[in-house]
Write a structure and sequence with these properties.
The complex is a heterodimer. Chain A is of the alpha+beta class. Chain A has one domain: BirA Bifunctional Protein, domain 2. Chain A is built from 9 helices and 13 strands. In chain A, strands 1, 5, 6, 7, 9, 10, 11, 12 and 13 form a 9-stranded mixed beta sheet that branches. In chain A, helix 2 runs parallel beside helix 8 and helix 7 packs antiparallel against helix 8. Chain A is globular. Chain B is mainly beta. Chain B has a 6-stranded antiparallel beta sheet, with no helix packed on it. In chain B, strands 9-8-7-10-11 form a 5-stranded antiparallel beta sheet. In chain B, a hairpin with a 7-residue loop joins strand 3 and strand 4. Chain B is elongated and about 70 Å long. The chains are: A alpha+beta, B mainly beta.
Chain lengths: 318, 189
Protein backbone atom coordinates (compact mmCIF):
# COMPACT_ATOMS: atom_id res chain seq x y z
CA UNK A 1 0.00 0.00 0.00
CA UNK A 2 1.21 3.46 -0.83
CA UNK A 3 -1.65 5.24 0.96
CA UNK A 4 0.77 6.68 3.53
CA UNK A 5 2.02 8.96 0.75
CA UNK A 6 0.45 12.37 0.05
CA UNK A 7 -2.11 12.52 -2.76
CA UNK A 8 -0.51 15.76 -4.05
CA UNK A 9 3.09 16.14 -5.23
CA UNK A 10 5.46 18.16 -3.05
CA UNK A 11 5.79 20.69 -5.92
CA UNK A 12 2.00 21.10 -5.87
CA UNK A 13 2.03 21.68 -2.12
CA UNK A 14 4.71 24.37 -2.48
CA UNK A 15 2.63 26.13 -5.16
CA UNK A 16 -0.44 25.80 -2.94
CA UNK A 17 1.37 27.43 -0.01
CA UNK A 18 2.40 30.33 -2.21
CA UNK A 19 -1.19 30.89 -3.43
CA UNK A 20 -2.45 30.93 0.17
CA UNK A 21 0.28 33.42 1.09
CA UNK A 22 -0.88 35.59 -1.84
CA UNK A 23 -4.48 35.49 -0.60
CA UNK A 24 -3.34 36.67 2.85
CA UNK A 25 -1.32 39.43 1.20
CA UNK A 26 -4.39 40.52 -0.85
CA UNK A 27 -6.45 41.04 2.31
CA UNK A 28 -3.62 42.49 4.42
CA UNK A 29 -3.15 45.22 1.77
CA UNK A 30 -6.84 46.09 2.05
CA UNK A 31 -6.76 46.27 5.83
CA UNK A 32 -9.07 43.24 6.28
CA UNK A 33 -8.40 41.53 9.61
CA UNK A 34 -7.59 37.80 9.65
CA UNK A 35 -9.59 35.91 12.29
CA UNK A 36 -10.07 32.36 13.56
CA UNK A 37 -13.33 30.89 14.86
CA UNK A 38 -14.14 27.44 16.36
CA UNK A 39 -14.33 24.46 14.02
CA UNK A 40 -16.53 22.64 16.54
CA UNK A 41 -19.82 24.25 17.48
CA UNK A 42 -22.93 23.50 19.58
CA UNK A 43 -25.12 24.20 16.55
CA UNK A 44 -24.88 23.84 12.80
CA UNK A 45 -26.60 25.01 9.62
CA UNK A 46 -30.26 24.19 9.04
CA UNK A 47 -29.90 24.29 5.22
CA UNK A 48 -31.38 20.92 4.15
CA UNK A 49 -28.75 20.41 1.43
CA UNK A 50 -25.74 21.09 3.64
CA UNK A 51 -25.21 18.33 6.18
CA UNK A 52 -22.83 18.90 9.07
CA UNK A 53 -20.71 16.12 10.54
CA UNK A 54 -21.60 15.49 14.20
CA UNK A 55 -18.81 14.87 16.70
CA UNK A 56 -19.46 13.35 20.11
CA UNK A 57 -17.51 15.21 22.77
CA UNK A 58 -17.14 14.56 26.48
CA UNK A 59 -16.18 17.13 29.05
CA UNK A 60 -16.02 15.51 32.49
CA UNK A 61 -19.12 13.34 32.66
CA UNK A 62 -21.13 15.34 30.20
CA UNK A 63 -21.47 14.03 26.66
CA UNK A 64 -22.63 16.41 23.97
CA UNK A 65 -23.03 16.37 20.21
CA UNK A 66 -21.05 19.15 18.62
CA UNK A 67 -20.80 19.77 14.87
CA UNK A 68 -17.79 20.28 12.65
CA UNK A 69 -18.52 23.55 10.90
CA UNK A 70 -19.86 23.54 7.35
CA UNK A 71 -18.61 27.14 7.05
CA UNK A 72 -17.46 29.81 9.54
CA UNK A 73 -20.41 32.06 8.64
CA UNK A 74 -22.28 32.25 11.96
CA UNK A 75 -19.21 32.77 14.14
CA UNK A 76 -17.79 35.39 11.79
CA UNK A 77 -21.08 37.31 11.84
CA UNK A 78 -20.93 37.21 15.65
CA UNK A 79 -17.53 38.93 15.38
CA UNK A 80 -19.00 41.52 12.99
CA UNK A 81 -21.89 42.16 15.38
CA UNK A 82 -19.32 42.61 18.16
CA UNK A 83 -17.56 45.36 16.17
CA UNK A 84 -14.66 43.55 14.44
CA UNK A 85 -14.90 45.53 11.19
CA UNK A 86 -14.11 43.77 7.86
CA UNK A 87 -12.67 40.28 8.43
CA UNK A 88 -11.43 37.22 6.56
CA UNK A 89 -10.62 33.64 7.46
CA UNK A 90 -8.95 30.66 5.80
CA UNK A 91 -10.12 27.50 7.53
CA UNK A 92 -11.29 23.92 7.17
CA UNK A 93 -14.98 23.19 6.58
CA UNK A 94 -16.70 19.80 6.63
CA UNK A 95 -19.72 18.45 4.76
CA UNK A 96 -21.25 15.02 5.13
CA UNK A 97 -21.36 12.80 2.06
CA UNK A 98 -19.79 15.21 -0.40
CA UNK A 99 -17.18 13.08 -2.18
CA UNK A 100 -16.10 13.22 -5.80
CA UNK A 101 -13.61 14.77 -8.18
CA UNK A 102 -14.61 18.26 -7.04
CA UNK A 103 -15.72 17.38 -3.52
CA UNK A 104 -13.91 16.23 -0.39
CA UNK A 105 -15.81 15.95 2.92
CA UNK A 106 -13.06 18.11 4.48
CA UNK A 107 -12.00 21.14 2.46
CA UNK A 108 -10.39 24.55 2.79
CA UNK A 109 -12.56 27.62 2.68
CA UNK A 110 -11.79 31.31 2.34
CA UNK A 111 -14.57 33.45 3.77
CA UNK A 112 -14.62 37.20 4.03
CA UNK A 113 -16.96 40.02 5.05
CA UNK A 114 -16.85 43.66 4.02
CA UNK A 115 -18.66 46.41 5.88
CA UNK A 116 -20.85 48.74 3.78
CA UNK A 117 -20.45 46.59 0.64
CA UNK A 118 -23.49 45.39 -1.25
CA UNK A 119 -23.24 42.16 -3.27
CA UNK A 120 -22.13 44.03 -6.40
CA UNK A 121 -19.26 45.79 -4.61
CA UNK A 122 -18.20 42.45 -3.18
CA UNK A 123 -18.35 40.92 -6.69
CA UNK A 124 -15.94 43.68 -7.78
CA UNK A 125 -13.51 42.66 -5.05
CA UNK A 126 -13.95 38.96 -5.86
CA UNK A 127 -13.11 39.76 -9.48
CA UNK A 128 -9.92 41.53 -8.36
CA UNK A 129 -8.93 38.51 -6.26
CA UNK A 130 -9.52 36.10 -9.17
CA UNK A 131 -7.54 38.33 -11.53
CA UNK A 132 -4.72 38.47 -8.96
CA UNK A 133 -4.59 34.70 -8.25
CA UNK A 134 -5.75 33.17 -11.55
CA UNK A 135 -4.71 35.95 -13.98
CA UNK A 136 -8.22 35.85 -15.42
CA UNK A 137 -10.00 38.36 -17.63
CA UNK A 138 -12.65 40.54 -15.93
CA UNK A 139 -15.62 38.36 -15.00
CA UNK A 140 -18.94 38.23 -16.84
CA UNK A 141 -22.07 38.99 -14.80
CA UNK A 142 -25.64 37.92 -15.47
CA UNK A 143 -28.67 37.79 -13.23
CA UNK A 144 -30.30 34.44 -12.46
CA UNK A 145 -33.34 35.49 -14.51
CA UNK A 146 -31.24 36.54 -17.52
CA UNK A 147 -29.17 33.39 -17.55
CA UNK A 148 -32.24 31.13 -17.50
CA UNK A 149 -33.94 33.18 -20.20
CA UNK A 150 -30.83 33.16 -22.38
CA UNK A 151 -30.07 29.43 -22.19
CA UNK A 152 -33.43 27.73 -21.72
CA UNK A 153 -35.95 30.47 -22.46
CA UNK A 154 -37.69 30.26 -19.09
CA UNK A 155 -38.06 33.09 -16.58
CA UNK A 156 -37.33 31.40 -13.23
CA UNK A 157 -39.38 33.96 -11.27
CA UNK A 158 -42.57 33.33 -13.26
CA UNK A 159 -42.48 29.61 -13.95
CA UNK A 160 -44.11 26.49 -12.56
CA UNK A 161 -42.70 23.17 -11.36
CA UNK A 162 -44.54 21.50 -14.28
CA UNK A 163 -42.92 23.74 -16.90
CA UNK A 164 -39.45 23.11 -15.45
CA UNK A 165 -40.04 19.36 -15.16
CA UNK A 166 -41.26 19.16 -18.77
CA UNK A 167 -38.24 21.07 -20.07
CA UNK A 168 -35.87 18.95 -17.97
CA UNK A 169 -37.36 15.65 -19.15
CA UNK A 170 -37.11 16.74 -22.79
CA UNK A 171 -33.51 17.89 -22.51
CA UNK A 172 -31.84 15.78 -19.84
CA UNK A 173 -31.70 12.01 -19.49
CA UNK A 174 -33.01 12.17 -15.93
CA UNK A 175 -34.54 9.38 -13.92
CA UNK A 176 -36.80 10.19 -11.01
CA UNK A 177 -38.98 12.90 -9.58
CA UNK A 178 -38.01 16.00 -7.63
CA UNK A 179 -40.06 17.36 -4.81
CA UNK A 180 -39.71 21.09 -5.32
CA UNK A 181 -39.10 23.82 -7.85
CA UNK A 182 -35.61 24.65 -6.61
CA UNK A 183 -34.45 21.08 -7.23
CA UNK A 184 -35.64 21.32 -10.87
CA UNK A 185 -33.92 24.72 -11.21
CA UNK A 186 -30.72 23.15 -9.87
CA UNK A 187 -31.00 20.23 -12.28
CA UNK A 188 -31.49 22.58 -15.24
CA UNK A 189 -28.71 24.88 -14.10
CA UNK A 190 -26.12 22.11 -13.60
CA UNK A 191 -27.00 20.25 -16.82
CA UNK A 192 -28.19 22.85 -19.35
CA UNK A 193 -26.56 26.11 -18.27
CA UNK A 194 -23.33 25.49 -16.37
CA UNK A 195 -21.63 23.66 -19.30
CA UNK A 196 -22.27 26.75 -21.47
CA UNK A 197 -20.89 29.47 -19.21
CA UNK A 198 -17.62 30.48 -17.56
CA UNK A 199 -15.30 28.79 -20.04
CA UNK A 200 -13.20 31.83 -21.04
CA UNK A 201 -13.62 34.02 -17.98
CA UNK A 202 -15.19 33.74 -14.52
CA UNK A 203 -18.97 34.04 -14.42
CA UNK A 204 -20.93 35.77 -11.64
CA UNK A 205 -24.56 34.75 -11.27
CA UNK A 206 -26.59 37.15 -9.10
CA UNK A 207 -30.07 38.02 -7.79
CA UNK A 208 -31.47 34.58 -6.97
CA UNK A 209 -35.12 33.57 -6.58
CA UNK A 210 -36.30 34.39 -3.05
CA UNK A 211 -36.81 30.66 -2.36
CA UNK A 212 -33.01 30.34 -2.61
CA UNK A 213 -32.21 33.40 -0.50
CA UNK A 214 -30.41 31.36 2.21
CA UNK A 215 -28.84 34.14 4.34
CA UNK A 216 -29.18 36.97 1.83
CA UNK A 217 -31.31 40.10 2.01
CA UNK A 218 -34.44 40.05 -0.14
CA UNK A 219 -35.12 43.16 -2.21
CA UNK A 220 -38.83 43.86 -2.61
CA UNK A 221 -38.73 44.67 -6.30
CA UNK A 222 -41.05 43.21 -8.90
CA UNK A 223 -40.32 40.32 -8.82
CA UNK A 224 -38.57 40.28 -5.44
CA UNK A 225 -35.02 38.84 -5.62
CA UNK A 226 -32.40 37.70 -3.12
CA UNK A 227 -29.13 39.69 -3.07
CA UNK A 228 -27.06 36.54 -3.47
CA UNK A 229 -24.34 35.65 -5.98
CA UNK A 230 -22.36 32.62 -7.07
CA UNK A 231 -19.07 32.39 -8.95
CA UNK A 232 -18.32 29.83 -11.66
CA UNK A 233 -15.20 29.16 -13.68
CA UNK A 234 -14.35 26.29 -16.03
CA UNK A 235 -17.03 23.95 -14.76
CA UNK A 236 -16.41 24.62 -11.08
CA UNK A 237 -18.68 26.42 -8.64
CA UNK A 238 -16.13 28.55 -6.81
CA UNK A 239 -17.97 30.80 -4.39
CA UNK A 240 -21.28 31.88 -2.90
CA UNK A 241 -21.94 35.29 -1.40
CA UNK A 242 -24.70 37.40 0.13
CA UNK A 243 -25.59 40.96 0.90
CA UNK A 244 -26.20 39.74 4.43
CA UNK A 245 -29.63 39.53 5.99
CA UNK A 246 -29.65 41.63 9.20
CA UNK A 247 -33.18 40.92 10.42
CA UNK A 248 -33.16 38.35 13.27
CA UNK A 249 -36.90 37.60 13.06
CA UNK A 250 -36.71 36.92 9.32
CA UNK A 251 -33.58 34.79 9.83
CA UNK A 252 -35.31 32.76 12.55
CA UNK A 253 -38.28 32.16 10.24
CA UNK A 254 -35.97 30.89 7.47
CA UNK A 255 -34.29 28.48 9.93
CA UNK A 256 -37.70 27.17 11.03
CA UNK A 257 -38.70 26.62 7.38
CA UNK A 258 -35.48 24.66 6.81
CA UNK A 259 -36.27 22.47 9.83
CA UNK A 260 -39.78 21.78 8.50
CA UNK A 261 -38.27 20.78 5.13
CA UNK A 262 -35.74 18.55 6.93
CA UNK A 263 -38.47 16.83 8.90
CA UNK A 264 -40.58 16.25 5.78
CA UNK A 265 -37.61 14.69 3.96
CA UNK A 266 -36.31 12.60 6.88
CA UNK A 267 -33.10 14.61 7.13
CA UNK A 268 -31.23 14.92 10.43
CA UNK A 269 -32.73 17.26 13.03
CA UNK A 270 -30.33 19.97 14.10
CA UNK A 271 -30.33 22.67 16.77
CA UNK A 272 -30.72 26.31 15.65
CA UNK A 273 -27.70 28.47 16.44
CA UNK A 274 -29.16 30.76 19.11
CA UNK A 275 -25.86 32.62 19.60
CA UNK A 276 -25.96 33.64 15.97
CA UNK A 277 -29.58 34.83 16.21
CA UNK A 278 -28.74 36.77 19.39
CA UNK A 279 -25.90 38.48 17.52
CA UNK A 280 -28.32 39.51 14.73
CA UNK A 281 -30.71 40.85 17.35
CA UNK A 282 -27.90 42.86 18.87
CA UNK A 283 -27.24 44.28 15.40
CA UNK A 284 -25.22 43.09 12.42
CA UNK A 285 -23.67 46.02 10.54
CA UNK A 286 -24.60 46.38 6.85
CA UNK A 287 -22.17 44.05 5.09
CA UNK A 288 -21.65 41.50 2.35
CA UNK A 289 -19.82 38.22 2.72
CA UNK A 290 -18.65 35.39 0.51
CA UNK A 291 -17.18 31.90 0.88
CA UNK A 292 -14.76 30.54 -1.70
CA UNK A 293 -13.51 26.96 -2.10
CA UNK A 294 -9.74 27.29 -1.84
CA UNK A 295 -8.98 23.76 -3.10
CA UNK A 296 -10.98 24.43 -6.28
CA UNK A 297 -9.28 27.80 -6.71
CA UNK A 298 -5.93 26.01 -6.50
CA UNK A 299 -7.10 23.37 -9.01
CA UNK A 300 -7.84 26.21 -11.43
CA UNK A 301 -4.59 28.04 -10.70
CA UNK A 302 -2.36 24.98 -11.06
CA UNK A 303 -4.32 22.87 -13.53
CA UNK A 304 -5.29 19.99 -11.23
CA UNK A 305 -8.08 17.69 -12.36
CA UNK A 306 -9.33 16.66 -8.95
CA UNK A 307 -9.16 17.91 -5.38
CA UNK A 308 -6.88 15.08 -4.35
CA UNK A 309 -4.14 16.46 -6.61
CA UNK A 310 -4.05 19.74 -4.67
CA UNK A 311 -4.42 18.65 -1.03
CA UNK A 312 -1.77 16.88 1.04
CA UNK A 313 -3.99 13.93 1.87
CA UNK A 314 -7.40 13.38 0.31
CA UNK A 315 -10.29 11.63 2.09
CA UNK A 316 -9.07 8.14 1.11
CA UNK A 317 -5.73 8.82 2.76
CA UNK A 318 -7.06 10.77 5.74
CA UNK B 1 -32.92 -8.24 -4.80
CA UNK B 2 -29.95 -6.21 -3.63
CA UNK B 3 -29.92 -2.50 -4.41
CA UNK B 4 -27.12 0.03 -4.58
CA UNK B 5 -27.54 3.67 -3.62
CA UNK B 6 -26.22 6.18 -6.18
CA UNK B 7 -23.77 7.20 -3.45
CA UNK B 8 -22.07 3.79 -3.40
CA UNK B 9 -22.07 3.06 -7.13
CA UNK B 10 -18.59 2.62 -8.60
CA UNK B 11 -17.21 1.79 -12.02
CA UNK B 12 -17.52 -1.93 -12.81
CA UNK B 13 -20.68 -2.57 -10.75
CA UNK B 14 -23.46 -4.43 -12.56
CA UNK B 15 -26.96 -2.97 -12.24
CA UNK B 16 -30.37 -3.25 -13.88
CA UNK B 17 -31.45 -0.16 -15.84
CA UNK B 18 -34.62 -0.19 -17.99
CA UNK B 19 -34.82 -3.96 -17.38
CA UNK B 20 -31.42 -4.54 -19.01
CA UNK B 21 -28.20 -5.55 -17.27
CA UNK B 22 -25.65 -2.73 -17.41
CA UNK B 23 -22.14 -2.14 -16.19
CA UNK B 24 -21.28 1.19 -14.57
CA UNK B 25 -18.60 3.12 -16.46
CA UNK B 26 -18.48 6.27 -14.33
CA UNK B 27 -20.40 8.00 -11.54
CA UNK B 28 -19.93 11.76 -11.17
CA UNK B 29 -21.24 13.57 -8.10
CA UNK B 30 -22.93 16.85 -9.10
CA UNK B 31 -23.69 19.03 -6.09
CA UNK B 32 -24.42 22.71 -6.00
CA UNK B 33 -23.04 24.26 -2.79
CA UNK B 34 -26.61 24.90 -1.71
CA UNK B 35 -29.18 22.69 -3.37
CA UNK B 36 -30.22 19.24 -4.52
CA UNK B 37 -27.36 16.80 -5.22
CA UNK B 38 -27.32 14.59 -8.31
CA UNK B 39 -25.27 11.72 -9.67
CA UNK B 40 -24.47 11.68 -13.36
CA UNK B 41 -24.04 8.00 -14.10
CA UNK B 42 -22.49 6.62 -17.27
CA UNK B 43 -23.24 2.96 -18.00
CA UNK B 44 -22.88 0.39 -20.76
CA UNK B 45 -25.87 -1.75 -21.61
CA UNK B 46 -24.48 -5.30 -21.62
CA UNK B 47 -27.05 -6.48 -24.16
CA UNK B 48 -26.62 -3.74 -26.74
CA UNK B 49 -23.13 -2.50 -25.86
CA UNK B 50 -24.37 1.11 -25.96
CA UNK B 51 -22.96 3.61 -23.48
CA UNK B 52 -25.54 6.01 -22.03
CA UNK B 53 -25.36 8.83 -19.48
CA UNK B 54 -28.25 9.43 -17.10
CA UNK B 55 -28.74 11.68 -14.09
CA UNK B 56 -30.21 10.43 -10.82
CA UNK B 57 -31.15 12.23 -7.64
CA UNK B 58 -28.45 11.45 -5.04
CA UNK B 59 -29.63 8.72 -2.73
CA UNK B 60 -31.88 7.01 -5.30
CA UNK B 61 -31.37 3.26 -5.63
CA UNK B 62 -30.44 1.04 -8.55
CA UNK B 63 -31.17 -2.66 -8.52
CA UNK B 64 -28.14 -4.93 -8.63
CA UNK B 65 -27.96 -7.20 -11.70
CA UNK B 66 -27.36 -10.90 -11.22
CA UNK B 67 -24.36 -10.88 -13.54
CA UNK B 68 -21.33 -13.11 -12.98
CA UNK B 69 -18.13 -13.68 -14.90
CA UNK B 70 -17.00 -17.31 -15.18
CA UNK B 71 -13.92 -18.89 -16.75
CA UNK B 72 -14.85 -20.91 -19.79
CA UNK B 73 -13.31 -22.59 -22.82
CA UNK B 74 -14.29 -21.87 -26.39
CA UNK B 75 -15.34 -25.20 -27.96
CA UNK B 76 -16.44 -24.56 -31.56
CA UNK B 77 -18.69 -22.40 -33.66
CA UNK B 78 -21.53 -23.47 -35.94
CA UNK B 79 -24.67 -22.02 -37.48
CA UNK B 80 -26.27 -21.44 -34.09
CA UNK B 81 -23.35 -19.44 -32.73
CA UNK B 82 -20.25 -19.98 -30.63
CA UNK B 83 -20.20 -22.72 -28.02
CA UNK B 84 -18.46 -22.51 -24.66
CA UNK B 85 -17.95 -24.79 -21.67
CA UNK B 86 -17.64 -23.45 -18.14
CA UNK B 87 -14.40 -24.78 -16.61
CA UNK B 88 -15.77 -25.49 -13.13
CA UNK B 89 -19.13 -27.04 -13.97
CA UNK B 90 -18.63 -28.38 -17.54
CA UNK B 91 -21.93 -26.63 -18.32
CA UNK B 92 -22.20 -25.67 -21.99
CA UNK B 93 -23.57 -22.42 -23.41
CA UNK B 94 -24.11 -21.05 -26.91
CA UNK B 95 -23.78 -17.36 -27.71
CA UNK B 96 -24.80 -15.91 -31.09
CA UNK B 97 -22.20 -13.98 -33.09
CA UNK B 98 -23.61 -10.52 -32.45
CA UNK B 99 -23.11 -10.96 -28.71
CA UNK B 100 -19.59 -12.25 -29.15
CA UNK B 101 -18.57 -9.04 -30.91
CA UNK B 102 -14.87 -8.43 -31.51
CA UNK B 103 -13.89 -11.23 -29.15
CA UNK B 104 -14.43 -13.76 -31.93
CA UNK B 105 -11.41 -12.32 -33.77
CA UNK B 106 -9.16 -13.82 -31.09
CA UNK B 107 -10.89 -17.08 -30.22
CA UNK B 108 -9.71 -20.43 -31.54
CA UNK B 109 -10.85 -23.77 -30.26
CA UNK B 110 -9.81 -24.52 -26.68
CA UNK B 111 -8.98 -20.87 -25.88
CA UNK B 112 -9.74 -19.92 -22.29
CA UNK B 113 -11.98 -16.88 -22.01
CA UNK B 114 -14.31 -15.06 -19.62
CA UNK B 115 -18.01 -15.71 -20.09
CA UNK B 116 -20.53 -13.25 -18.62
CA UNK B 117 -23.75 -14.85 -17.40
CA UNK B 118 -26.92 -12.93 -16.55
CA UNK B 119 -29.58 -14.86 -14.64
CA UNK B 120 -27.78 -18.00 -15.82
CA UNK B 121 -27.83 -17.03 -19.51
CA UNK B 122 -24.73 -16.07 -21.51
CA UNK B 123 -24.54 -12.38 -22.30
CA UNK B 124 -21.03 -11.68 -23.51
CA UNK B 125 -17.58 -13.18 -23.80
CA UNK B 126 -14.18 -11.59 -23.36
CA UNK B 127 -11.03 -13.00 -24.95
CA UNK B 128 -7.94 -13.24 -22.72
CA UNK B 129 -5.79 -10.09 -22.75
CA UNK B 130 -3.07 -11.98 -24.64
CA UNK B 131 -3.48 -14.80 -27.14
CA UNK B 132 -0.96 -16.79 -29.23
CA UNK B 133 -2.05 -17.31 -32.84
CA UNK B 134 -0.47 -18.60 -36.05
CA UNK B 135 0.08 -16.35 -39.07
CA UNK B 136 -1.61 -17.93 -42.07
CA UNK B 137 -0.91 -15.22 -44.61
CA UNK B 138 1.56 -12.34 -44.90
CA UNK B 139 3.93 -10.88 -47.51
CA UNK B 140 7.48 -12.27 -47.34
CA UNK B 141 8.80 -8.82 -46.33
CA UNK B 142 12.50 -8.07 -46.16
CA UNK B 143 14.85 -10.54 -44.49
CA UNK B 144 17.34 -9.00 -42.13
CA UNK B 145 15.05 -6.14 -41.19
CA UNK B 146 14.75 -6.42 -37.42
CA UNK B 147 13.85 -2.84 -36.66
CA UNK B 148 10.14 -3.50 -36.72
CA UNK B 149 9.75 -0.05 -38.19
CA UNK B 150 7.25 -0.09 -41.01
CA UNK B 151 5.39 -3.31 -40.50
CA UNK B 152 2.94 -5.17 -42.72
CA UNK B 153 -0.49 -6.76 -42.35
CA UNK B 154 -0.68 -10.41 -41.31
CA UNK B 155 -3.76 -12.62 -41.36
CA UNK B 156 -4.09 -14.96 -38.36
CA UNK B 157 -5.65 -18.41 -38.14
CA UNK B 158 -8.83 -16.90 -36.61
CA UNK B 159 -9.25 -14.50 -39.52
CA UNK B 160 -8.07 -11.41 -37.62
CA UNK B 161 -5.58 -9.11 -39.33
CA UNK B 162 -2.87 -7.37 -37.29
CA UNK B 163 0.21 -5.33 -38.24
CA UNK B 164 3.47 -7.19 -37.65
CA UNK B 165 7.14 -6.24 -38.13
CA UNK B 166 8.62 -7.03 -41.55
CA UNK B 167 10.81 -9.90 -40.23
CA UNK B 168 7.82 -11.96 -39.05
CA UNK B 169 6.99 -14.76 -41.47
CA UNK B 170 4.00 -16.82 -42.51
CA UNK B 171 3.56 -19.93 -40.35
CA UNK B 172 5.08 -18.31 -37.24
CA UNK B 173 3.24 -17.96 -33.91
CA UNK B 174 2.78 -14.47 -32.50
CA UNK B 175 1.47 -13.03 -29.23
CA UNK B 176 -1.29 -10.40 -29.62
CA UNK B 177 -2.73 -7.94 -27.09
CA UNK B 178 -6.48 -8.39 -27.71
CA UNK B 179 -7.46 -5.18 -25.89
CA UNK B 180 -5.80 -3.02 -28.53
CA UNK B 181 -5.48 -5.61 -31.30
CA UNK B 182 -1.72 -5.24 -31.58
CA UNK B 183 1.26 -7.54 -32.12
CA UNK B 184 3.43 -8.02 -29.02
CA UNK B 185 6.14 -10.56 -29.92
CA UNK B 186 7.04 -13.75 -31.76
CA UNK B 187 6.53 -17.01 -29.87
CA UNK B 188 8.70 -20.14 -30.27
CA UNK B 189 6.75 -23.35 -30.83
Amino acid sequence: MTFWRPSATIEMLKARASIIANIRHFFAERGVLEVETPLLSHATVTDPHVLGIPALTRVGLIENTFYLQTSPEYAMKRLLAAGSGSIFQICKAFRQGDLGKNHNPEFTMLEWYRLDFDHHTLMDEMDELLQFILKTLPAERLSYANVFERFIGINPHFTTTEELATYAKQNINFSGELSDMNAWLNLLFTHCIEPNIAQEKPFFLFDFPVSQAALAKIRTENPPVASRFEVYFKGLELANGFHELQNATEQHKRFENDLIYREKHQLPKVPIDENFLAALENGLPDCSGVALGVDRLIMLALGGNSIKEVVGFDFERA
Amino acid sequence: MAVYSTNEIRGGMKVMIDNDPCVIVDNEFVKPGKGQAFNRIKFRNLKTGRVIERTYKSGDNLEAADVVDVEAQFLYSDGSGLHFMVNDTYEQFALDETHVGDSKLWLKEQTDCMLTLWNGNPLAVAAPNFVVLKIVETDPGVRGDTSGGGGKPAKLETGAVVRVPLFVQEGELIKVDTRIGEYVSRVKE
